[in-house]
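Re: your question from the hallway

Yes, I did run it. Sequences:
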Amino acid sequence: MLEAFDPSSLVLGVSEIARRSGLPKSTVHRLLTDLVAERLIVKVRDPATGATAYQLGLRLFELGERVPQHFSLSQLALPIMEDLREATRQRIHLAVLDGVDVVYVEILGSGAVEVGSRVGGRLPAHATGVGKVMLAYAGPEVVEARIAAGLPALTARTITTPDGLVAELRKIRTHGFALDIEESTLGVLCVAAPVFGAGRRLVAGISATGITRSIDPGTIGPAVRTAAFTLSRALRSDASS
Amino acid sequence: MLEAFDPSSLVLGVSEIARRSGLPKSTVHRLLTDLVAERLIVKVRDPATGATAYQLGLRLFELGERVPQHFSLSQLALPIMEDLREATRQRIHLAVLDGVDVVYVEILGSGAVEVGSRVGGRLPAHATGVGKVMLAYAGPEVVEARIAAGLPALTARTITTPDGLVAELRKIRTHGFALDIEESTLGVLCVAAPVFGAGRRLVAGISATGITRSIDPGTIGPAVRTAAFTLSRALRSDASS
DNA sequence: GCATGCGTTCCACTGAGCGGAACGGGCCTC
DNA sequence: GAGGCCCGTTCCGCTCAGTGGAACGCATGC
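Structure:
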């Protein structure tokens, strides 16, 4: 039922939540009362209509910040992301693979252009730089799962064929980094590198993103790879302590 | 039961969760199975012992990022916080009042020194700069609630008497900003200002934090207040659109 | 004035949830 | 090697908590 609150609808009434979740209104109303008591949901007065409405509560935010895949990773990554941002002056993303999508666990810097990424947001892996770089170093079963789930286009430049994706991933493994040239957002270019943890296992992807005409991959690529190596080493040190 | 996962214990076994939550082991086990199915919890192998353990799942992080008090506020605040960070070169905090505590909803920059603040973390309001500034502009019932809940010391410099706190809050209203001179962390000074939304209602507090000897409140105070005014105006514009 | 949809409450009915006990396994100590 | 301890997991008899359709009062729009 909590999934009814999506990023474009953060404040909802009982009937709308019932519609979105497929539960009866009385069930939703009772569950909301319980969740309000647990402070996972907050009951508010919708300023637009004056009606009763509900939104996710601060407690949920506090719990969300304790998710190890975000918290532990961010703690080690943030200083390195700050360095990369200082060095490149671009918007820096840190994301993990979740199923066939990427989920952004940390983003530094607002960009010169509006991009679709958002902390806690998810995008299909094949259509982003960090996603492609993680697909390149994840097992073939993840690539196959992504292909099976479909390769939807985010822009006209998104890779939408299995052969095209497989060839692209091979190229990424050769270069050691991925490029997203307007595949997720028109006018935006992104350079991404893989981050490994203990046992050389893929943990995350890190990237620098900016306006296509202001980014030189030849210059930024090595910087992103350096940050990725630094974070990988930090993760391995952390795992053995 | 999810509260059993606290920031110092992110990975727990069934028995430990049962102890912390006061629920029987079979109840905990069954609830965990349900939460794993909902992907709010992840079942992992504890690398230290090889035993089964559980941690909060990425889905919870995604939901946490949709909490309006974090998401909507951060969206408007981040560019302003970045400006303030650029101008002051200090660690920037954005926090909201929750009951008698402050909860940090956004933090920019790692500091020169380790401070107790953490995104999603909470601290007693009377013992932090952003907390004192919000107490100064919140209703007296919030101040009374904080006093009734006790004024625990975080350092030897924390205000621990009701009269001392009331006098301090009056002073803050006179100056329009708060100072935290080593009250939450030794060696650390913080300058904070209040952020208002529609109807001149207090929404948040913003602050710049750094090493005591590297911060001049006379210089940084106006910068923090400027950022607070800018964010307040952005919030009022946002509310009326 | 009527229709529609809202949030809220009621209550007869149903099966889902509870949690103590037992199990097998791993680890540690003697 | 045996015994003790604690772990995670499973079972199942028992109990009442949860369900959701219907009805209500209210607000809005035509």
